[in-house]
Amino acid sequence: MQSPIDLLDVRVQVFPGLGKLLRDYRAAPAAVKNRGHDIEGDAGKIKINDTNYHLKQCHWHSPSEHTFNGSRHVMELHLVHYSSQGGTAVTAIVYEYGRPDRFLSKLLRHITRVDPGEEIDAGIISPGDIKFGSRKYYRYNGSLTIPPCTEGVIWTVIKKVRTVSREQVKAIRDAVHDGYEANARPTQSSDGRTVFEYTPGEI
Prior knowledge:
Pfam families: Carb_anhydrase
InterPro entries: Alpha_CA_prokaryot-like, CA_dom, CA_dom_sf, Carbonic_anhydrase_a-class
Structural class: mainly beta
Main location: plastid
Function: Reversible hydration of carbon dioxide.
């Protein structure tokens, strides 16, 4: 079961039992590498099915990898988490053009200075500054979207599309030296898998 996929509202199964996304992020040291940053300290965690997944890395794809009802957006942020049992959980936020993203604004001065293979100390970053904008999300089982595209990944895709400025998108694309089209994996077949949607208050 590979990722990303097209998230079709007509095919998702609303499941309130998923519950509110439990996240507990905190400020931690980080190092910027090309299009994202690795977390060097304890940046907190999310909890899925009573398992804690610790945030270890953030990166951006432009254009977006997941599509909503066939529509691709300008950028996508991946928050990559790992459990002590070796599990992987990724939270994705999709962006369209609009107001600048505050979290990205704080990191851009580091990202734009990084050359291929180089690493720059970004100081203390706070993942808690990343705004989801909604409690609604999609949940499905898939894979990493970069080689080796390992399967068994729990995906949480925030339903609300956030905004990012054109200048910020350009900076991210310029930082990805292999060209932005190569930075986003094409959507993969859903292969009949179930995609759940958590919407507060719906039954």
